[in-house]
Amino acid sequence: MEEAIKKKVPFKIDIGAIFSFHRHRQVASSLVPVARELVFDIDLTDYDDVRNCCQGADICLKCWKFMAIACKIIDLALREDFGFQNLLWVFSGRRGIHCWVCDVSAKILSSQERSAVADYLQLISGSSNCAKKVNLPISDKLHPSIRRASNIIRNKFFEVCIEGQNLLEKPESLKKLLSLIWDEKLKNRISKKINSLTDIKEKWNAIVQELTDTSVSLFYFDHYFLNINLQYF
């Protein structure tokens, strides 16, 4: 292979599966893949519903922060929950990032097992017309992976979403954010309070204060934040 690469000097190399026989020595029908890397693709267009700075193929430093946080969440899940260690993160060359899981145990996973890993990492569901795409169970006993992801997001939510995407400044973005709060009285109270404020930090603090008010249980505060955090990431 080394000699072939030197001879042809390719500008691009696509890595595929490992087959049971050399593909040049067997007819295509007899080739059976025996191993291939487990690859995850994160695309910025998946964030078009929540990013206001860019759309489509356009990217900037503000929306790239979504990718950085997604990488951290997936990297931890693959390492801590599945035990994978050999992870290669690469820029896709367009508007996303690929994660190549190169552990032997990952390479020999069946298609069904690969789908199971992907489903484990997937919380978003619903079409672009669906306002609420993360539906967590009404319970304080959430899976540790969900709790871990939310903690990562919570530390960056104000910087990335509130400031970076102006969620509280644009009417449509604010409406979408408030739609994640199902308690109408609480929603109206928050809306009234932030409409009387001008500073973005004060608005966000007002939302946090309402959700942590003594009249609202700690469970609901935590659950609302889980829904809001995970919805935007």
UniProtKB/TrEMBL annotation:
Family the entry assigns: Belongs to the eukaryotic-type primase small subunit family.
Organism from which the protein derives: Pediculus humanus subsp. corporis (Body louse)
GO molecular function annotations of the record: DNA-directed RNA polymerase activity
Protein origin, superkingdom: Eukaryota
Protein name according to UniProt: DNA primase small subunit, putative
Gene Ontology terms describing biological process: DNA replication, synthesis of primer
A Pfam family this chain is assigned to: DNA_primase_S
